[in-house]
């Protein structure tokens, strides 16, 4: 059983390492040009996207931000054993805040409070759904 556990743990860690590399590449390095700015008004960018009617941008912005950090939430819950919702929410918020700040500082993105809200919401949504599914087992 120990060998099976080692293989399982190796697979989880490997998947998370690949995910983190993918995430940082996408968030920090996947730009062909540098831009900088910030939005501190909640739902301002989302409102503009909805009004514009650009369906592709709406899907990418809203659903992309909700779903992009969900695997990280799984990583926090399973590998680090963070099961308390308050602690999980605080860590989720500060991690996304860190990513948004890095984008702003290095001019590879816009510090957007909408992203902060949507990403944290996505992580907490995963937390509650996954917690409920684990309780059923």
Would you spell out the secondary-structure blueprint of this structure?
Elements: H1 2-29, E1 35-39, H2 44-52, H3 55-67, H4 70-78, H5 85-105, E2 108-112, H6 113-136
Parallel strand pairs: 1-2
Helix pairs in contact: 3-6, 4-6, 5-6
Q: Key terms for this structure?
A:
two-stranded parallel sheet; mainly alpha; 6 helices; 76% helix; 137 residues; single chain
Structure summary:
This protein is mostly helical. It has helices spanning 2-29, 44-52, 55-67, 70-78, 85-105, 113-136, and strands at 35-39, 108-112.
Characterise the protein shown here.
The protein has 137 residues and is mostly helical. It is globular. The mean pLDDT is 84. A two-stranded parallel ribbon has the order 1-2. The chain has helices spanning 2-29, 44-52, 55-67, 70-78, 85-105, 113-136, and strands spanning 35-39, 108-112. Helix 4 (70-78) crosses helix 6 (113-136).
**Strands across the major sheet, in which order?**
1-2
What structural class is derived from the secondary structure elements?
mainly alpha
Rg from C-alpha positions?
A: 17 Å
**What can be said about the biggest beta sheet?**
2 strands, parallel
Helix content: over 70%
Average pLDDT confidence is 84
- Assess the beta-strand content as a share of residues: 5-15%
Number of helical elements: 6
Q: What string gives the helices and strands in order?
A: HEHHHHEH
Total strand count, please?
2
